[in-house]
């Protein structure tokens, strides 16, 4: 049991985000379209029989036991199964790109294989949902339309797209935005067809840009080169392009010093390219 497995834990964008209501437990009902990207963190898993879960590489300042990689590994662990996970981070933290959730999902998928735990995708989604609202979509591994609290998923095929993403130098707390008095919480549900006709927005965007000048600034810069929008509760903002060359040219026109990157939208998560039963 010494072979290592390296997997890409991709980022996602919320192409739109409508908040359609608030549930009695305080969580919000949403409609969103999760676009998975061919860009993200790389996690390398080396299993062992020490019974220990260790993390190395870029782990931010998160205490190991709070790291979602550690927490998801612990959910699958039994007996003397152990693993060292090496983390190579690219996804900014608290950026609305789902980095933590994607790391958790990739860990569940990797260890299910390496530790021969034989859990179904549905079982892994259930385990993952206890760690974060966006874990199930990364476990399913499809670009998806989501409803409920983001747990009712329907795979969607999107036309090939390229995205320019700007990461402002700030973290937005999802809990802060969802508990804010000024958040729009009563958007009427739309159909998938209405989204494709252009009837969508991000209900958090006005509030987040008011609270975080860095986000407002990033949106203003990106609005000059395309149709700019916030992903999730932020802080990252993105613009979509139908041609790779257009996106590349737009990226090149951004002011220097801005933390920005370009990524391809994919219908299937790149994590699965490295798994046996994909
Ligand atoms: C809204 C999204 C869209 O992708 O925002 P981002 O976090 O990606 O920006 C996500 O579903 C977020 O997922 P995640 O960041 O995992 O949220 P969680 O840790 O489960 O929840 C953080 C807090 O946000 C609030 N919350 C979250 C999801 C939801 N549907 N309703 C809520 O009210 C709750 O107060 C919760 O305590
Ligand atoms: N392996 C991890 N990678 C990124 N964030 C993590 C990880 N483990 C725990 N977290 C925590 O998860 C939270 C959400 O991070 P992330 O998923 O990147 O942002 P968002 O929810 O905005 O998309 C952060 O507060 C971060 O501290």
Automatic annotation (TrEMBL):
Reactions catalysed: 4-CDP-2-C-methyl-D-erythritol + ATP = 4-CDP-2-C-methyl-D-erythritol 2-phosphate + ADP + H(+)
Pfam families named among the record's database cross-references: GHMP_kinases_C, GHMP_kinases_N
Pathway the protein acts in: Isoprenoid biosynthesis; isopentenyl diphosphate biosynthesis via DXP pathway; isopentenyl diphosphate from 1-deoxy-D-xylulose 5-phosphate: step 3/6
EC number of this enzyme: 2.7.1.148
Keywords from the named record: ATP-binding, Isoprene biosynthesis, Kinase, Nucleotide-binding, Transferase
GHMP kinase C-terminal domain boundaries: 200-255
Active site: 12, 134
Domain GHMP kinase N-terminal: 67-141
Residues that hold ATP according to the record: 92-102
GO MF, one annotated term: 4-(cytidine 5'-diphospho)-2-C-methyl-D-erythritol kinase activity
Any one Gene Ontology BP term: isopentenyl diphosphate biosynthetic process, methylerythritol 4-phosphate pathway
HAMAP family from the UniProt entry: IspE (MF_00061)
The protein's role, per its UniProt record: Catalyzes the phosphorylation of the position 2 hydroxy group of 4-diphosphocytidyl-2C-methyl-D-erythritol.
Similarity comment text for this entry: Belongs to the GHMP kinase family. IspE subfamily.
Protein name, per record: 4-diphosphocytidyl-2-C-methyl-D-erythritol kinase
Organism placement in taxonomy: Bacteria, Pseudomonadati, Pseudomonadota, Gammaproteobacteria, Cellvibrionales
Gene: ispE
């Amino acid at each position: 049991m010494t072979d290592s497995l390296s997997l890409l834990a991709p980022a996602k964008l919320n192409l739109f985000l409508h908040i359609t209501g608030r549930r009695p437990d305080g969580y919000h009902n949403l409609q969103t379209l999760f676009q998975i990207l061919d860009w993200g963190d790389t996690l390398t898993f080396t299993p062992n029989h020490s019974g220990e879960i260790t993390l190395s590489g870029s782990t931010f300042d998160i205490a190991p036991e709070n790291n979602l990689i550690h927490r998801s590994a612990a959910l699958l662990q039994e007996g003397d199964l152990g693993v060292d996970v090496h983390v190579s981070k690219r996804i900014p933290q608290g950026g609305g790109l789902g980095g933590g959730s994607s790391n958790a999902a990739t860990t569940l998928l990797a260890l299910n294989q390496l530790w021969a735990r034989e859990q179904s995708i549905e079982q892994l989604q259930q385990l993952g949902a206890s760690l974060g609202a966006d874990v199930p979509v990364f476990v399913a591994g499809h670009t998806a339309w989501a409803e409920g609290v983001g747990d009712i998923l329907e795979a969607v095929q999107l036309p090939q797209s390229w995205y320019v993403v700007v990461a402002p130098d700030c973290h937005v707390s999802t809990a802060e935005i969802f508990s804010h008095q000024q958040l729009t919480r009563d958007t009427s549900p739309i159909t998938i067809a209405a989204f494709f006709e252009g009837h969508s927005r991000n209900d958090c965007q006005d509030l987040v840009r008011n609270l975080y000048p860095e986000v407002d600034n990033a949106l203003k810069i990106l609005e000059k080169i395309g149709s700019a929008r916030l992903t999730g509760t932020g802080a990252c903002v993105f613009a979509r392009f139908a041609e790779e060359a257009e996106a590349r040219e737009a990226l090149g026109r951004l002011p220097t010093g801005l933390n920005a990157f370009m990524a391809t939208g994919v219908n299937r998560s790149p994590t699965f390219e490295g798994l046996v039963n994909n």
